[in-house]
Specification:
Order of helices and strands: HEHHEHEHHE
Structural class: mainly alpha
Number of strands: 4
Strand content: 5-15%
Distance between the termini: 31 Å
Radius of gyration: 16 Å
Shape: globular
Number of helices: 6
């Protein structure tokens, strides 16, 4: 998928996303925080793209999708558009002049996601719906961490960076939603 196509999908989804709880409720404020972050990453991606920094644009758009999809799956947000998957097919190959930056960022984001995953513990009590969702968030982050590693091994660093960014977006949104206690590196999360 082209990076510009992912931006268009994210922008369209965000423009049709609503908060499901009242604005003065805890859930409403949590939903607003998640939606604000998803929009911020879409905006950052556009800024990077306009400056020719396709590596950071790619990471920002998929990070934004991670935030949006986590908020939607948790039932805090609803989008009027059909669910969109930014992982349709392979991503465009970035120009050779960007490959060094891409390799560095992909390796760093893979390490950051691994560190972030071991820096949290589910906060809700066992046998609660919130605990089940926290464990789902951890499963999603694990799946995308593994997918990223497989994509690095298969020579698809663009795909790997997207996986790492998306997985970290889910985890970061889960932390913001109060699903996790941070037991490790706090600076890996947007709080």
């Amino acid at each position: 998928m082209k990076i510009a196509r992912c931006q268009a999908l994210l922008s369209k989804a965000l423009s049709k996303t609503t908060i499901l709880s009242g604005e003065n409720t805890a859930l409403g404020r949590t939903a607003e925080s998640i939606l604000v972050m998803a929009r911020a990453y879409e905006s950052d991606g556009r800024t990077f793209s306009e400056k020719g920094d396709q590596v950071n644009a790619l990471a920002a758009y998929w990070y934004g999708f991670g935030w949006l999809h986590c908020g939607t799956a948790f039932g805090l947000l609803k989008t009027a558009t059909p669910p969109v998957c930014p992982f349709e097919g392979s991503f465009e190959s970035l120009p050779s002049v960007l490959q060094l930056q891409l390799a560095e960022k992909t390796a760093r984001y893979g390490q950051l996601l691994d560190t972030a995953r071991i820096s949290v513990d589910p906060a809700p009590e066992h046998s609660t719906v919130a605990r089940d969702f926290a464990e789902r968030v951890l499963m999603v982050t694990l799946v995308y961490a593994k997918n990223g590693k497989m994509r690095v091994e298969s020579g698809a660093p663009e795909d790997a960076l997207a996986c790492y960014s998306y997985g970290h977006g889910w985890l970061d949104a889960g932390v913001t939603a109060g699903l996790f206690r941070i037991t490790g590196e706090r600076d890996l999360f947007t709080l």
